[in-house]
Specification:
Number of strands: 8
Oligomer: single chain
Shape: elongated
CATH topology of the largest domain: Rossmann fold
Order of helices and strands: EHEHEHEHEHEEHEHHHHHH
Number of helices: 12
Number of domains: 2
Largest sheet: 8 strands, mixed
CATH architecture of the largest domain: 3-Layer(aba) Sandwich
CATH class of the largest domain: Alpha Beta
Structural class: alpha/beta
Helix content: 40-55%
Strand order of the largest sheet: 3-2-1-4-5-6-7-8
Strand content: 5-15%
């Protein structure tokens, strides 16, 4: 990895996060990374802060790169794919564009191109992302491993079949918004009980961070962790009763299902 040149097409927030993660994780030095964007101010920013190579031409960006990361919006993907189709045959192309299928990308880039489809989420911007990867027909185990190293640098990764990417989108892709709503609701409830707004928000957010980290340790299931903080006749059980009365589990499941369904619809367009 340290000697392979990496091109990132799209210098927005996610492109910047990936470049920063790659450098911080020791996967490549700044001079081995080239970023392309149509916005000169973004390129200047990335050059000044990360010291990566920059270019406003697509051809220059991809010509010497072993790995090309497409961090562009889905509506711009077809134009980008057609622009690079003649120059990336046999190389590894990684896309983070929601709804753009492996088959669509391979159809434009050609049969020899190794393609990986990725669904990250916004906490990658602070190194706490949850990312799922699906390899195309020509992607090798080494390609998957390389992609995992890149996205592990901004969080954690899992590998799934492409047919499950829509479910990933509904769960972790859209999931941060669900978490923000829960945090906001907890904070608002704390204010109603007498806490000041800033204290309530900090307590709510840190409580969710701590709960998530306990789950990620993998020593106990969520149900077992719930039992740890729930005593008979205590405060927590009364709160849980209220949550169950409001059908919180069914509501969250409905949100994931709705987002998954919408992801499938967008993938057909």
């Amino acid at each position: 990895m340290p000697k392979e040149k990496i091109c990132i097409i799209g210098g927005g927030n996610m492109g910047e996060a990936l470049a920063g993660g790659i450098i911080a994780g020791g996967l490549a030095r700044p001079e081995y990374i080239t970023v392309h964007d149509i916005r000169r101010e973004r390129l200047n920013h990335l050059c000044d802060t990360l010291h990566v190579g920059i270019t406003d031409t697509m051809e220059t960006a991809v010509q010497d790169s072993a790995i090309i990361i497409l961090a562009v919006k889905p509506q711009n993907m077809e134009d980008v794919l057609r622009d690079i189709a003649g120059t990336v045959s046999g190389r590894l192309v990684i896309s983070i564009a929601a709804g753009v299928t492996l088959g669509f990308m391979e159809g434009i880039l050609g049969d020899r191109t190794r393609v990986i489809r990725v669904m990250p989420n916004t906490p990658a911007l602070i190194g706490e992302g949850a990312t799922a990867l699906a390899g195309g027909s020509n992607a090798t185990e080494n390609d998957i491993a390389a992609a995992r190293r890149i996205f592990d640098s901004v969080g954690m990764t899992v590998v799934v079949k492409e047919g499950l990417i829509d479910a990933v989108t509904g769960l972790s892709g859209s999931g941060p918004a669900y978490g923000f709503i829960i945090i906001e609701a907890l904070a608002d409830a704390g204010v109603r009980q007498g806490l000041d707004a800033q204290t309530a928000l900090r307590l709510a957010a840190q409580t969710m961070v701590g709960a998530a980290k306990l789950c990620l340790r993998g020593e106990r299931t969520p149900a077992q962790l719930t039992d740890m903080v729930t005593s008979p006749g205590g405060t927590t059980i009364e709160g849980i009763k209220a949550l169950r009365a409001g059908r919180i589990s069914e509501t969250i499941a409905a949100a994931v299902e709705a987002a998954t369904r919408r992801s499938k619809e967008l993938g057909k367009k």
